[in-house]
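target protein:
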Amino acid sequence: MSCRFYLPTTQSTCGLCYISKILMSDIIVTEKICKNYSLGTHVVRALVDVDLHVGMGEFLCIVGPSGSGKTTLLNLIGCLDVPTSGTVKMFGQYETAKLNDKETTLLRRDRIGFIFQSFNLLPVFNVMENVGLPLELQRVPKAELDKRVKALVEEVGLIEYAQHRPDELSGGQRQRVAVARALITNPQLVLADEPTANLDHDTGMAVLELMLEMNRNHGTTFIFSTHDPKVMGIAKRIVTVEDGRIKEDRNVA
């Protein structure tokens, strides 16, 4: 599956210059992060003293049993939550706990793509509208928006379903819409929570190839939370989490 992506004409930072500046550097650094949740009178320690460095262009899997802290870690990296203690530093310049709501929203909008297991598509929007929504929020001109959306919808094999709403699509088709939406802004970082869980083998592999191609061609960093052997089989690095701690961190040849 070949893939064409378009860099935005306007961004809060110069995309290509910024990417070259931080190439091979750490874009995510977590230092001794802990995350606690209150459950009645008990405190659940979801993450304990997690240190993690992620470089630009990595293709990384976070694995571990259910309840081990994988999704919590993704949420902290994705600025959907803040740690109870410790720090999460993003793109060499942001400490997430110190950002206000507007700064956090802009960081997620402009630099991070999300792929959720439950799709999180807007039911009243068709395929083109769901994929194009992040560009609408960036106020990309309509001609450029339409061009980029059409190209990416074609690449994920959904152009004949372009006017269909989510309830008219299969689970696999909905996930491909979700993947396209995450990639449409050419983000520097994509976070994917079990992205192939609802896909058949062939569709899952096609989606993974699409993400691998963006990783190779644009240096986009991908972090997956997964149980899927297919994802682990193409990962370049695997981080194993158990009981809220990193048990193993290894590169894969």
Observations:
- The longest strand covers residues 26-39.
- The chain has one domain: 15-26+56-83+94-251.
